[in-house]
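=== RUN LOG ===
request id: a7f3
mode: sequence -> structure
chains: 1
length: 236
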Amino acid sequence: MQIQTIKTKVFNENGDLLSFIFKHIKRIPENSVLIIASKVVALSEGRVVDYKNEKQKRELLKKESGFAVQTKYTWLTIKDGMFMASSGIDESNAKGKLILLPKDSFKSAEYLRSKIKQHFHLKKFGILISDSGLLPLRSGVIGVALGYAGFKGIKSYINKKDIFRRKFIYSKTDVADSLATAATLCIGEGDEQQPLALIKNAPVVFSSKINRKELAVSFKEDIFYPLLKNINVKKK
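=== RESULT ===
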């Protein structure tokens, strides 16, 4: 697996994302996954709000999430079945505005994949829209997959055997978030200006159909349930 980051010009609000991608990427080989930072997808969709004050931001992040609680450094929220800071609302590299997450990252990923696959005449190709995320009791951000298309996001080892012939009962690998984290390490979080990354020879199972719920785990089935059971999450 090789990760190639793509240096680009600044992508502006309501810009044409496909034209932006085709301008900066001239070739995509088969068996590749294109990672796109969620911020440029959101900007292309006009998911931008003028920043007024902290009260406005607080009300917006609560509106965008199903659960929100203030912590020492930021707001901890649950949005689209994931824990994230401030409902994914971002002020960095935003010219004093607030950038929300894409409206439907899975839908956006499928649309982009269809157009890019056709443009480059590809058969095995995937798209992943990534954002930064946090792990409990760990410092620093990792990458998370907000939406993807063209490959299976999870690999199951259930009922398969290890090297000593012992069967796995629960084990699965989170393919989508692993790819997002690998790309985030290369893309960066500051002024790198690299919102695109191409993963070549991606170790994934390519598929034209994906299950957008395959990574989701209910509260009661989650290993952290003892800590989550008293949380009341509103459905969005």
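=== NOTES ===
The chain has a mean pLDDT of 93.
The chain has two domains: 1-46+102-210, 48-100.
=== END ===
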